[in-house]
Amino acid sequence: MTGHPLQPAPRPVRPRYERERRERAPRRTRRGALVWFVAFVLTVLSVPLSFRGMNDDGPTPIAQLLAFLPWFLVPGWLALLYAVLTRRGLVALWAIAVLAATVGYTLPQGPDAPAGAAERTGKARFRVLTANLHYGDATGALLRTVRRERPQLVSVQECDGRCAEALRSVRMNESYPYRHIIDAPGAGGSALLSTFPLQERGSLPGRLAMPNAVADVAGTRVKIQVAHPMPPRPDALDSWRQELGTLRSYGASRDGTPTIVAGDFNSSQDHAAFRSVLRTGLNDSARLTGQSRTPTWPNGTPLRPMGAQIDHVLVSDPLTAVEAQFLELDGSDHLAVLADVKLF
After folding, report:
1. Distance, CA of 74 to CA of 259 (rounded, Å)
2. Per-residue pLDDT reduced to its tens digit, 258-307
3. Which has the closest alpha carbon to 139: 112, 171, 117, 161?
4. What is the signed CA dihedral for 319, 282, 179, 189, rounded to 10 degrees?
5. Relative to the CA of 38, which of 55, 166, 260, 333 has its CA 20 to 30 Å away?
6. Residue from 145, 190, 199 nearest 172 by CA
7. CB 331 within 8 A of CB 133
8. What are the b/e assignments for 70-79, b being 16+ CB within 10 Å?
């Protein structure tokens, strides 16, 4: 007999090369999946960068992604590291192109402050504060901030009924006798406070209030505008574009009058709609003071270091900013912007 009838037959011995091929197959599958994932990440980065190059904010989610464009560097570098380690030449070239475009667009936009502006004597030097109060929750923090910093002009957004009542108080009337307050619930209200006389009070059309006026600063007429277009949510993208266009028209119609536009623009220098506002001759105080990438939103969250600068104080010649600070406001998801401005 050749063996017991119940004894299992021996397994056939596979050649060594076949065993190695079967062992390598799962590894190749995993590597292939990782290549496709890296390609997907680079695609997600490349599409908004392409719209940025075309000076177009694009549809959702392009407009939202553009707010965080500087942080494209992180996945871009990781993709390049993977490509180098795995010797994926085409992927490496793609990652380098993404990184180069991101760095180029991240560089500061707009002019530097005039040489010696801080030392030169002008007609006036004053402070401009812009603050988003998050549905009025930061009203107390705003009152403490204006008492401490003493800005001459204050642009307030998301000023609800509580906020409007506080700004109309006797104490605030003594500090800011000139006010233009548009009371509305939730995020709809806004206010303009001034120690300078205000004339020609008005408002730009928008779903959120955007009051304006003309201030008498050392005998010079200065136009003041509160900015608060809708955020670029998917359901409000058209309103966001339209209202930033309204702000651009306001800046373009100043007829040589010194102009300040301050507020929550819900847009950064990486948005074409915001850059169109700057092209009217308005300069960002943060850029003039070398701080054009300091994030102002979302404050009070772990994502703050990766946020975007969407709160701005814009000025036109012969105004220039000589200093800018970013201030915490308890209760707000935005940092306030405080700019020291000179009128020449």
Report:
1. 38
2. 999 999 999 999 999 999 999 999 999 999 999 999 999 999 777 667 89
3. 161
4. -160
5. 55
6. 145
7. yes
8. bbbeebbeeb
CA gap 259, 204 in Å, rounded: 15
Nearest to 268 by CA among 67, 59, 55: 67
Angle between helices 73-85 and 16-53 (to 10 degrees): 150
Structure-token pair, residue 252: 């373009």
Task: Locate the DSSP E strands across the chain.
Answer: 124-132, 153-157, 178-182, 190-194, 198-204, 210-217, 220-227, 259-264, 282-284, 311-316, 319-327, 336-343
Between strands 190-194 and 153-157, the pairing is: antiparallel
DSSP 266-292: S--TTSHHHHHHHTTTEEEHHHHTT-T
Instruction: Give the span between the Cα atoms of 102 and 98, in whole angstroms.
Output: 6
**Which phi and psi (to 5°) does residue 55 adopt?**
60, 45
Mean per-residue pLDDT, 301-315 = 87
Cα–Cα distances in Å, from 132 out to 103, 139, 299?
30, 9, 11
Would you state the pLDDT for residue 111?
A: 79
Q: 157: closest CA among 128, 192, 126, 197?
A: 192
Give Dmax over CA atoms of the chain in angstroms: 120
Q: How far apart are CA 15 and CA 137, in angstroms?
A: 74
- Reported pTM: 0.89
Q: Could you give the C-alpha distances from 127 to 24, 77, 152, 160, in angstroms and in order?
A: 67, 40, 5, 24
What mean pLDDT value characterizes the chain? 92
Q: In what order do the strands lie in the sheet with 319-327?
A: 178-182, 190-194, 153-157, 124-132, 336-343, 319-327
pLDDT for 8 equals 62
pLDDT tens for each residue of 74-104: 999 999 999 999 999 999 999 999 999 999 9
CA distance 298 to 314: 21
